[in-house]
């Protein structure tokens, strides 16, 4: 059974089309061969019978019925094993001359030609091609040839032609499958590598076979393109690193200047309060700046070097443990429900930060007496990590917008935060190939990250 | 204590030097990598603060060169690159601690002090003591004035870290990195809540508090005598 993937492929369809074309050509060729062998034998048989008929007709027209009887009998005597068949009967089909025992049972045709089985005078059954005539005086004449040998040869030719066609089609089909497999194998390598590159592993390159064929050329071109993109991205990263370095410098100086200008501990002056508030504001700006850089790095896929196979349950437990006192202080129930031993390939720090952002949000927006849940489940499609709360939730029309940078709902404008928390979660989800879904928890919000299954087993860290 | 600052941002270096001098350190400053290598070879310092991105020879090369020459001076790396990967590179090159720009001066000071105190005796210790508070590192138990204190595993680690740095300021970031192994700063100050719980457990029934919050800087545990 050919796999459906192969049947649906363009390569297979192309190969199948060639096979059909080739099959048709072979069929035409075999038809021609048949026509010029078996067909030639058929025509030769008819020609021989016609010659016999012409001879007998001549005898009959010159010497009448008795002449015809003599001619038939002399031919039968002369042609013991020649395959000639003759029968002349009266109007009641009683034999008068010839080497056939009886008038065979057949339906008369318009042109007088008949192919039928019959019994010779010596009782032997033969298969014959005959021409039938009604002579004046209601006499019936049959002239024909034993075509058993011709039929055998024709059958052999036909068998050879049929088998030839079957073998051709089978070989063509097998060739199509093998060719398709080979092509699909090469395409699969390119597709697999492309998918990994799209998931953010820009260091990955497509392996070439080294044959220098079209696939190798395509691979080479794609790799050159990736090198160029990588170079450009490195350039962008370098620029953003420099910007980070250059912009953070002045901010850092301002902060240090303010810090050194703080009056000694204990002096709780108004001045000190102003300076402390200013430092806190600068910290908020710097925090937002740091979050933007982290989001950019995650989006660019530049944090994949730190990927490892992680125990997602342990990671979630650590984050839940970090936030548990905060939830308790706010009068919230933190329900942690984690399937043990769930592995995922990822960056521990970014995943912890993303989960911390979600738990932080859930605690921030859930009123006292409510509930926050951290859940981890594992199904055939891969692990799902979710944080739900019993807060006000996010209206469906805003669920995409809250993932954008700096987007804040009107209802949360006065809550602390920069509007970058969920953007970071979205970027981290994208980096890990995870699907991020915001849903109604009835009441509240449920944010879930559905990860792809871990492909290869590796030590869990 | 003599500190060498290797930083090309002259203004940032000037403030750092001013703050460190006010805290009682002797400070040298160089602004480029080549000059730094000459100074390291020619003089002895108790600790160094090295910026990662420098004109000429970069910070990591300086550290690798000095370590290859057998120089074991503690080094605090400063960098605008805050990825874990960058930290790992910095620490692998021979740095002892890593601080991402922009940093609070109090953070820099706390980390430098931790580096200067870092001895080789920690591994052999079986207990830590601050005033009448005792931490048994083998049985993982805590007691104050002989009275046992129930601690959760993370609370134990938190107290252990504070007691190892007793008398010195420990910042929130230091706690996050060393107790939770997180390189990010949570939006809400969850560390405050953990500290207040710990304080409740170790200071609640006693007249003299041991665990203090240093406003704008961090926390410290110290003997009140």
TrEMBL record, chain A:
<dbReference type="Pfam" id="PF00672">
    <property type="entry name" value="HAMP"/>
</dbReference>
<dbReference type="InterPro" id="IPR003594">
    <property type="entry name" value="HATPase_dom"/>
</dbReference>
<dbReference type="Pfam" id="PF02518">
    <property type="entry name" value="HATPase_c"/>
</dbReference>
<dbReference type="InterPro" id="IPR003661">
    <property type="entry name" value="HisK_dim/P_dom"/>
</dbReference>
<keyword id="KW-0812">Transmembrane</keyword>
<feature type="domain" description="HAMP">
    <location>
        <begin position="181"/>
        <end position="234"/>
    </location>
</feature>
<keyword id="KW-0418">Kinase</keyword>
<keyword id="KW-0472">Membrane</keyword>
<feature type="transmembrane region" description="Helical">
    <location>
        <begin position="160"/>
        <end position="179"/>
    </location>
</feature>
<keyword id="KW-0597">Phosphoprotein</keyword>
<dbReference type="InterPro" id="IPR004358">
    <property type="entry name" value="Sig_transdc_His_kin-like_C"/>
</dbReference>
<feature type="domain" description="Histidine kinase">
    <location>
        <begin position="242"/>
        <end position="455"/>
    </location>
</feature>
<dbReference type="InterPro" id="IPR036890">
    <property type="entry name" value="HATPase_C_sf"/>
</dbReference>
<dbReference type="Pfam" id="PF00512">
    <property type="entry name" value="HisKA"/>
</dbReference>
<dbReference type="InterPro" id="IPR005467">
    <property type="entry name" value="His_kinase_dom"/>
</dbReference>
<dbReference type="InterPro" id="IPR036097">
    <property type="entry name" value="HisK_dim/P_sf"/>
</dbReference>
<dbReference type="InterPro" id="IPR003660">
    <property type="entry name" value="HAMP_dom"/>
</dbReference>
<protein>
    <recommendedName>
        <fullName>histidine kinase</fullName>
        <ecNumber>2.7.13.3</ecNumber>
    </recommendedName>
</protein>
<keyword id="KW-0808">Transferase</keyword>
<keyword id="KW-1133">Transmembrane helix</keyword>
<feature type="transmembrane region" description="Helical">
    <location>
        <begin position="12"/>
        <end position="34"/>
    </location>
</feature>
<dbReference type="InterPro" id="IPR050428">
    <property type="entry name" value="TCS_sensor_his_kinase"/>
</dbReference>
Automatic annotation (TrEMBL), chain B:
<dbReference type="InterPro" id="IPR001867">
    <property type="entry name" value="OmpR/PhoB-type_DNA-bd"/>
</dbReference>
<keyword id="KW-0238">DNA-binding</keyword>
<keyword id="KW-0804">Transcription</keyword>
<feature type="modified residue" description="4-aspartylphosphate">
    <location>
        <position position="51"/>
    </location>
</feature>
<keyword id="KW-0597">Phosphoprotein</keyword>
<protein>
    <submittedName>
        <fullName>Response regulator transcription factor</fullName>
    </submittedName>
</protein>
<dbReference type="GO" id="GO:0000976">
    <property type="term" value="F:transcription cis-regulatory region binding"/>
</dbReference>
<dbReference type="GO" id="GO:0032993">
    <property type="term" value="C:protein-DNA complex"/>
</dbReference>
<dbReference type="GO" id="GO:0005829">
    <property type="term" value="C:cytosol"/>
</dbReference>
<feature type="DNA-binding region" description="OmpR/PhoB-type">
    <location>
        <begin position="125"/>
        <end position="223"/>
    </location>
</feature>
<dbReference type="InterPro" id="IPR011006">
    <property type="entry name" value="CheY-like_superfamily"/>
</dbReference>
<dbReference type="GO" id="GO:0000156">
    <property type="term" value="F:phosphorelay response regulator activity"/>
</dbReference>
<dbReference type="InterPro" id="IPR036388">
    <property type="entry name" value="WH-like_DNA-bd_sf"/>
</dbReference>
<dbReference type="GO" id="GO:0006355">
    <property type="term" value="P:regulation of DNA-templated transcription"/>
</dbReference>
<feature type="domain" description="Response regulatory">
    <location>
        <begin position="2"/>
        <end position="116"/>
    </location>
</feature>
<dbReference type="Pfam" id="PF00072">
    <property type="entry name" value="Response_reg"/>
</dbReference>
<dbReference type="Pfam" id="PF00486">
    <property type="entry name" value="Trans_reg_C"/>
</dbReference>
<feature type="domain" description="OmpR/PhoB-type">
    <location>
        <begin position="125"/>
        <end position="223"/>
    </location>
</feature>
<dbReference type="InterPro" id="IPR001789">
    <property type="entry name" value="Sig_transdc_resp-reg_receiver"/>
</dbReference>
<keyword id="KW-0902">Two-component regulatory system</keyword>
<dbReference type="InterPro" id="IPR039420">
    <property type="entry name" value="WalR-like"/>
</dbReference>
<keyword id="KW-0805">Transcription regulation</keyword>
């Amino acid at each position: 059974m050919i796999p459906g993937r192969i049947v649906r492929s363009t390569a297979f369809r192309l190969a199948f089309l060639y096979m059909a074309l080739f099959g048709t050509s072979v069929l035409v060729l075999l038809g021609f061969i048949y026509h010029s062998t078996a067909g030639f034998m058929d025509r030769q048989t008819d020609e021989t019978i016609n010659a016999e008929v012409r001879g007998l007709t001549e005898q009959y027209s010159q010497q009448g019925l008795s002449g015809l009887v003599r001619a038939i009998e002399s031919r039968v005597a002369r042609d013991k094993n020649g395959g000639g068949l003759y029968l002349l009967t009266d109007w009641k089909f009683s034999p008068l001359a010839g080497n056939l025992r009886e008038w065979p049972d057949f339906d008369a045709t318009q042109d007088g030609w008949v192919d039928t089985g019959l019994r010779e005078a010596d009782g032997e059954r033969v298969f014959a091609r005959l021409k039938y005539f009604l002579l004046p005086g209601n006499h019936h004449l049959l002239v024909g040839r034993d075509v058993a040998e011709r039929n055998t040869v024709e059958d052999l030719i036909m068998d050879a032609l049929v088998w030839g066609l079957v073998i051709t089609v089978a070989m063509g089909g097998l060739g199509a499958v093998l060719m398709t497999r080979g092509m699909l194998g090469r395409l699969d390598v390119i597709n697999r590598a492309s998918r990994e590159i799209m998931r953010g592993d820009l260091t990955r390159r497509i392996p070439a076979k080294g044959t220098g064929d079209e696939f190798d050329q395509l691979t080479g071109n794609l790799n050159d393109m990736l090198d160029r993109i990588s170079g450009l991205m490195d350039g962008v990263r370098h620029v953003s690193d420099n910007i980070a370095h250059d912009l953070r410098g002045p901010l850092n100086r301002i902060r240090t200047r303010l810090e050194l200008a703080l009056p000694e501990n204990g002096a709780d002056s108004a001045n000190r309060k102003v300076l402390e508030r200013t430092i806190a504001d600068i910290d908020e700006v710097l925090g937002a700046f740091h979050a933007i850089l982290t989001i950019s790095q995650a989006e660019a896929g530049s944090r994949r070097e730190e990927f490892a196979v992680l125990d997602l349950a342990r990671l979630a437990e650590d984050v839940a443990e970090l936030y548990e006192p905060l939830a308790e202080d706010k009068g919230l129930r933190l329900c942690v429900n984690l399937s043990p031993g769930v592995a995922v390939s990822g960056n521990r720090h970014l995943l912890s930060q993303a989960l911390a952002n979600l738990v932080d949000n859930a605690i921030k927006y859930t009123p006292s007496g409510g509930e926050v849940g951290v859940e981890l489940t594992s199904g055939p499609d891969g692990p799902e990590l979710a944080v739900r709360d019993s807060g006000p939730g996010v209206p469906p029309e805003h669920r995409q917008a809250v993932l954008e940078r700096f987007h804040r709902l009107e209802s949360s404008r006065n809550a602390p935060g920069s509007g970058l928390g969920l953007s970071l979660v979205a970027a981290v989800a994208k980096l890990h190939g995870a699907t991020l879904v915001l849903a109604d928890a009835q009441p509240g919000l449920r944010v879930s990250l559905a990860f792809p299954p871990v492909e290869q087993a590796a030590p869990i860290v | 204590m003599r500190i060498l600052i290797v930083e090309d941002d002259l203004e940032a270096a000037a403030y750092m030097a001013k703050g460190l001098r006010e805290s009682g350190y002797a400070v040298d400053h160089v602004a480029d990598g080549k000059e730094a290598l000459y100074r390291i070879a020619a003089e002895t310092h108790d600790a160094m603060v090295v910026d990662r991105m420098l004109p000429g020879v970069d910070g990591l090369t300086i550290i690798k060169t000095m370590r290859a020459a057998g120089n074991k001076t503690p080094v605090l790396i400063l960098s605008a690159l805050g990825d874990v990967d960058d930290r790992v590179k910095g620490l692998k090159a021979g740095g002892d601690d890593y601080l991402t720009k922009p940093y609070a001066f109090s953070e820099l000071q706390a980390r430098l002090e931790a580096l200067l105190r870092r001895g080789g005796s920690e591994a052999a210790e079986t207990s830590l003591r601050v005033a009448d508070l005792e931490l048994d590192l083998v049985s993982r138990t805590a007691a104050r004035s002989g009275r046992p204190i129930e601690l959760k595993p993370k609370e134990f680690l938190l107290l252990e870290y504070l007691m190892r740095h007793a008398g010195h300021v420990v910042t929130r970031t230091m706690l996050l990195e060393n107790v939770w192994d997180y390189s990010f700063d949570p939006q809400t100050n969850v560390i405050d809540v953990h500290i207040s719980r710990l304080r409740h457990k170790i200071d609640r029934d006693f007249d003299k508090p041991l665990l203090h919050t240093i406003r704008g800087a961090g926390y410290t545990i110290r003997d009140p005598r």
